[in-house]
Amino acid sequence: MASNRKVKATNRMVTEIIIVIVISLVCGFSAAKLAGGGASQASSSDSSQGSWIARVKKAGVLKVGMAEAAPTLSKNSKGQWEGPWTIPSETIAKALGVKVQYVTTSWGNIVAGLQSGDYDLAAGLDITLARSLAVGFTAPMTGTNNVLMVPKNTTAKTEDALLTNAKPIAVPQGSAQESSLKLKDKNVLSVDSFPDAIQAVNSGRACAVLLPADTAVQAAQNNDSLAILVPQNPIAVAISGFGVSHSIDSSSLATLNAAITDAVNSGQIQASFEKVKIDTTITNGYVEASVPAKYQLS
What's the rounded Cα separation, in Å, for the pair 158 and 163? Predict the structure, then answer.
C-alpha cells in the first residue's frame, strides 16, 4: 500500500510539473504574440505614413538641393537661401517635426546629387522628359515661358534673328534651357549659372540669354541696359516642381503635393514674388510670372 501511495504521489507530481510547463509555454507564446502584434502595428503605422517620410523623420532633417536662379532660388545678404521654394520646404519640415537643411549645388549637378542621396528634394527643377528618365517630380509649383534677355541696343529684334546669330546664346550648364537649345541644334555658350550667362551678354560673348521670365525681370530691374524679348513662338516653357527620387512612395508624394497646393492656394507663393516686384498669375494650379511691357525690347 505504501508503495502504491508513493507511486501515485510521484505520478501526481509529474503531472503537476507537466501542467506548469504547459502553462508557462502557453503564457510565453501569448506574450510573444502580443509583443509581435505591437511591433507589427508600429511597423504598419510607419508604413502608412510612407517610407520616404519615415526615413526623413528618422534622420531628423529634410535636405533640399538648391541651385541659383534668382529671384525664386537665391541667397540673402546673410548667405541664407530664400524665395518661394523655401515655403513648402519649411511647411513640410514643420509637419514632420524635423529641421530643413538647404544644400547648395549647381544646375549641372542637381540631378546627380538627388540620385546619389545628397538631398531628399531638388527645388525648382524644370519638368522635362530627359530629367524624368533620371528622377521623379512633384506637382508643379511655378511655370513660365522662357524669354531671351538681350542688350537694349541689339540689332537682332526677333527670336529668329537671335537663334541664327553668329554669337551663341548663353545658358547654365545642365539647365533645361541648355537641353532645349541643344535639341534645336542651336549655338550655345554653356556657363556655370544664370548670373554668368547674363555677364556673357554684357561682355559681348553671347547675343542673348535664355532664362525664366522672373529671372529676366529681376535682371532688367537691376540693369537698365538690358531688355527682354518674349518669343512669339515659345522656345521652351519652364514648368517646375521639386525633383524626387524615383523610389519615393505614393503616400509621401501625395503629402509633398498637398504642401505645394497649400502654398499656392494660400497666396504665399505669389506674395514671395511680390516682395521682389514680380507680377504673377495662377495658371493650372501653379504660379506663373509675367513680363511687364516696360522691360520688353522695343
Answer: 9
